[in-house]
Specification:
The chain is α+β, with helices and mostly antiparallel strands and 133 residues long. The chain contains three helices and six strands; from the N terminus they run ββαββββαα. Strand 5 and strand 6 form a beta hairpin. It starts with a strand and ends in an 11-residue tail after the last helix.
């Protein structure tokens, strides 16, 4: 979008894991401009709609914000970002589970970051439930 970028990081472990970052250097949510806040709502809708459209289901995910530490010190190197961890792998009923060697050693990647990004980018921005058959 104008103020945000959604991407699948090359180190993604979860299928369709994404990062959401402001295009401008921002260290914490309160520093966002009004335009960035409004655009954030739009890109969140666009991303979660694509998640739902992927397997035509209400797509589960865990999401959290990473902002600069709140210790009162200046952290100019920090970059605000949101991280999405969706567990669905091949369908609405097939989930990825981290087990054994993945938790204790090296995670297995079920698809590349490029494959996940291409699949998400190719999806419609119109929610599958909004489309009349």
């Amino acid at each position: 979008s104008t103020h945000w970028v959604a991407l699948v990081p090359f180190w993604a472990v979860w299928p369709f894991e994404t990062l959401l970052l402001p295009r401008r250097h921002v260290t914490q949510l309160p520093d966002l401009s009004d335009a960035e806040r409004a655009d954030l709502a739009q890109i969140l809708k666009r991303l979660t709609t694509r998640y739902d459209n992927l397997f035509e289901t209400s797509f589960p995910y865990s999401m959290g914000w990473h902002g600069q530490p709140s210790d009162g010190a200046d952290h100019p190197h920090w970059q605000l970002h949101a991280h999405f961890y969706p567990p669905l792998l091949r369908s609405a009923t097939v989930k990825k589970f981290m087990v054994g060697f993945e938790m204790l050693g090296a995670p297995q990647r079920d698809l590349t970051a490029e494959q996940a990004a291409a699949r998400l980018a190719a999806l419609s921005g119109v929610h599958y439930k909004s489309v009349e058959n």
